[in-house]
Design a protein that fits this description.
Elements (H helix, E strand, L loop, with lengths): L4 H15 L1 E6 L6 H12 L2 E4 H8 L7 H8 L12 H8 L3 H28 L4 E5 L14 E6 L2 H12 L3 H10 L3 H7 L2 E4 L4 H11 L2
Parallel strand pairs: 1-3, 1-4, 2-3, 4-5
Helix pairs in contact: 3-6
Length: 213
């Protein structure tokens, strides 16, 4: 059988996709996701893609979401340098659910489009592990992109202690942050694997190692 060039390229792409694993990492605030991401990067050479950072980049002046956001929310959300005033925009969208939905409708499809593009590029670069991280990953529709989705779990008492020591947050602020995120049941239902990061990180590394065999 003679394969056309297009057929060969498609076949090579499918083989590359088998080689590269796309892993989703999620979990509540204070669960220790950052430490897990850093370990996957250093130990397994993972490329880390944090959705919040991608979204921020796409909202900068001259980027794909910028004009749409200004058109939707008005020039009063701009700073003197023309960039979005994220604090002011945040006040608007988190005060009114319909405004948040409006912003998400603009940003989320573009973020996903950028992720697809980046994955294609990393496949060509023979990257073996690509990790997507977001606290709201279970509700963002990335399960069709990720081969696996890991829920980084930690007991609430542990999360609170970490947030107090590392960021100096008050109990009131921590409670507000936890309540604004999906409950544990949602994370467990949407994810394929649970990593218990309540104890020492050595214990967490053992769990990761068993999954990466």
């Amino acid at each position: 059988m003679i394969l056309r060039r297009e057929d060969m390229e498609n076949e090579n792409r499918r083989e590359a996709e088998k080689i590269m694993k796309v892993l989703g990492i999620t979990g509540g605030v204070g669960s220790g996701k950052s430490q897990v991401l850093e370990y996957l990067k250093l130990e397994y050479g993972a490329v880390i893609c944090q959705l919040d950072e991608v979204a921020k980049e796409l909202q900068k002046k001259g980027m794909v979401c910028y004009d749409k956001i200004v058109e939707a929310f008005g020039s009063e959300i701009l700073q003197e340098d023309g960039e979005l005033n994220r604090a002011k925009l945040g006040e608007i969208v988190f005060r009114q659910e319909e405004e948040l939905q409006k912003l998400n409708t603009i940003v989320h499809p573009e973020v996903k489009r950028q992720i697809h593009k980046d994955i294609e590029e990393k496949i060509k670069e023979n990257v073996s592990l690509y990790v997507i991280e977001a606290a709201l990953l279970p509700s963002a529709g990335y399960e069709e992109i990720c081969d696996e989705m890991w829920y980084i779990y930690a007991k609430e008492s542990v999360r609170r202690a970490r947030l107090k020591s590392s960021r100096g947050y008050t109990d009131k602020k921590i409670t507000s942050m936890i309540q604004s995120q999906p409950p544990e049941s949602v994370f467990r239902r949407m994810c394929t694997t649970v990593i218990d990061n309540s104890g020492s990180f050595e214990e967490t590394k053992k769990q990761i190692g068993e999954l990466m065999i």
